[in-house]
Amino acid sequence: MAKTLSSQKLTSGSVAPDFSLKGVDNKTYSLKDFNSKSILVVFICNHCPYVKARIGDVVDLQTKFDNADLQIIGINSNDPDYEDEGLDNMIEFSKEYSLNFPYLIDDTQRVAKEYGAVCTPDPFLFDEDRKLVFHGKINDALEPSMTPSKNTMEENINRLLSGLAIEKDFDPSIGCSIKWKQ
After folding, report:
1. So where are the chain's domains?
2. What is the pTM of this model?
3. Residue 75 CB-density burial (10 A; 0-12 exposed, 13-18 middle, 19+ buried)
4. Which fold, 3-177?
5. DSSP string covering 87-127, please?
6. What is the C-alpha to C-alpha distance for residues 135 and 125, in angstroms, rounded to an integer?
7. What are the pLDDT digits (tens) for 29-81?
8. Residues 72, 40: contact at Cβ < 8 Å?
9. Before 121, cis peptide (omega within 30)?
10. Residues 6+ apart with CB under 8 A from 142
11. Residue 163: burial class (beta carbons within 10 Å; 0-12, 13-18, 19+)
């Protein structure tokens, strides 16, 4: 596990790079498939202890908002040949954690590079025009053993949906480094 802080490639106001990626449900998704007022693209994977510790928080986040207001999209950009990764393991992960949002494979790693994602989880919140409004942590629990006391992402989604400014547009998340192909 290589503990890594997210870094900023896309800045506030940047348009979300589009993609066409296969999901664990065998459907192909692009940004055009979602019409919600906000989209949360979260780079996750199957083996990372940081992801495993926060995935329940992400699932809960999707349940707190109607799909017309928020759509979460999970993207796995790890090398599919890395231990516990790849589509078959993603399908198992999706079932084990009862994912309630699309979980997509970026087996070329192109999407992660376009977004500037470097760790898992690495969340990007976009508005209705698909412009970046926040890149950063899900909550203040920065280590897998911690319990969150501040739900950073939920607060920012509520601010966005209420038409309020997000005070800090970049607040780095922390997690395992994305496992790049050699």
Report:
1. 3-177
2. 0.97
3. buried
4. Glutaredoxin (3.40.30)
5. HHHHHHHHHHTT--S-EEE-TT-HHHHHHT--EESEEEEE-
6. 6
7. 999 999 999 999 999 999 999 999 999 999 999 999 999 999 999 999 999 99
8. yes
9. yes
10. 174
11. exposed
